[in-house]
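Protocol step 4 of 6: structure prediction from sequence.
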Amino acid sequence: MKKEKFTVTGMTCSACSAAVERAVGQVQGVSSVNVNLLANSMVVEYDEGVLQPSSIIAAVSDAGYSASLAGQSPAQTQSGKVSQIEGEIAHMKRRVVISLVFMVILMYVAMGPMLGLPVPAFLLGLENAGTMALVQLLLTLPVLYVNRQYFQMGLKTLWKRSPNMDSLIAIGSGAAVLYGVFALFRIVYGLGHGQLDLVARYSHDLYFESASMILTLITLGKFLEARSKGRTSDAIAKLMDLAPKTATVIRSGQEVEIPVAELVVGDIIVIRPGESIPVDGVIVEGSSAIDESAITGESIPVAKTVGDQVISATLNKAGSFKFEATRIGEDTTLAQIIRLVEEAGASKAPIAKLADKISAVFVPVVIAIALVSFGVWLLLGYSFEFALTTAVAVLVISCPCALGLATPVAIMVGTGQGALHGVLIKSAEALETAHSVDTVVLDKTGTITEGKPQVTDVIPAAEVTAAELLRIGASLERPSEHPLAEAIVAKANQEGLELASVEEFLAVPGRGIQAKLGETTYLAGNLAFMQEHGIALGELEAQADKLAEQGKTPMYFADAHRVLGIIAAADVVKPSSRQAIAELRELGLEVAMLTGDNRRTAEAIRRELNLGAVLAEVLPEDKEREIRRLQEEGKTVAMVGDGINDAPALTRAHVGIAIGAGTDVALESADIVLVKNDLRDVVTAIKLSRATLRNIKQNLFWAFFYNSLGIPLAAGLFYPLLGWRLSPMYAAAAMSLSSIFVVTNALRLRRFAPNR
């Protein structure tokens, strides 16, 4: 079996992606097909012994869409994807602007006389009815032209027996335009034959403004949707930028700077302080502390020495070293993360819009009713005009304006309310999906916790005060760049302590530091460092063990003769995290934690917050795999994180939620961004999603039920008995009323507010 990725164009809704999947799935030799509507992509697994890619492309073409083989490398296709998305947004913007300009003028011309607005004299009166109708038609033509895609795709998919929202738009607006043209001819006929009653009747039966409004409003919604596309592509671009473009290698005994692409396995690479590591490898000379938070989520730099592995895109904090390249190019850890982000994005199933499901049945039924009513009235002896207006009334009352607005208007209001409360929802799919989430997976570092260590305990030994211990500790640590040192210095500054200058500062990798304050030599470091210098710890050793069990990192401080005390630091839990987790449980959600941090720290957090499932010391692919496992169990998963290491998991999850202070990659990979870095906003996002989905279902019910009630009236079902008949004009008014109701109902979401 071979797996191939294709680019599919022409899809506008979930009915489109379903039609493509159905068409390709029926091809002999295809074992699986997955279409991603947002990414306009399709992954097909097929037997290459019986099937060629050209056959798959032909199947997509037969369904009414276009397909081509996608590029194989993310680096090769990235710039093309970005430019394609930017071009699509620019094109949609031009369509919206042109449509709005001509629609506003048309609405003024059409409605001005009825509202008493000043209108040119040559458009007023029955004698100028023909001119008025012609002007309206001319103002409608540009709107029809710039939005011709609806007619091209809608009629094409209708012909292929897989109607979608484009089909509804094409039929509804097309019927209004065609009847308007028919009315124009009748007006001209009436003027030519002196039949002013005919002119008066048809001058009110022009529906050009209805067609223009339908196309403009739908295009506005499409434009807003187009702007949310391509986020995964941006994430991949930012991931690629993490690794350095050049590396210093030793060739023929000389240090040479070369492009990373020219590295080979076995190269000896030189890394200096502050440099990023270009590829994966093993240290062969020197030692340092490596900030691996971008990859592993570990909040504290990891001490590395000869024989230890280093990972691409991590940052060398202090010290120089040499390492041997073991994995390069597509084999590096960073490249694997990029691949995971891209594959997870491609495999994310599109959200099936309820409106599209309705339209799949609604469109053919409406067309059938219109044709039947037209034929029946002709057979009953009524005039062609009577039968035609009846059929058009059926099509107009069934116009998709309300059905098409039901979802995007509610989503626009919902996302606006989210932004007001610090919740940026980047796509309609995310807002729709969040309501069905039943499991929330939280990253630890920077999500549940503050993301950087803070001093939690200052425990002095006998005859030493806490202030004196903190002053000595901060003075010793001030020259160090270690995050724990920064936390101690920050605590001393907060306490207003005056720090002393140090001399003969010496950092011992993996152990601690040694320096002089005045004439006294002091030590600061871990247990092994104290033992190496023969410092007796007494009861402090037991206290240090207790601190470690609580997930804190204890550091010993001593002079040349005795221990002075312990200063402990930890990545502390955010004040809002406990309340947020409790509120998530109240919503009936399962809450779990994934972290790259050590098990002892993770267990301490679990106990503190009374969490259920906790998985510690996980690499990025493990996080992504765990999310996938939960999905395979049938759960709808939201992943909350802030780091680059979270990007694959954020993309794999049904809903990825990024903390606003997180990395650019996490923000781009996520579907929802919490601007205020408050975990309680996850609760807000889910509540807002539920309120929006409830609103959408109300809108869809009204749009479908209301229009369905009008269809029998428009078809003339009550005409023989009661004389009730719905003209196209009243059908258009009813359609407009339906749209007004939908918009008004959606605006109720503006009253949404989180309970705080």
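Step 5 (inspection) to follow. Confidence is low (pLDDT under 50) at residues 72-79, 228-232, 344-352.
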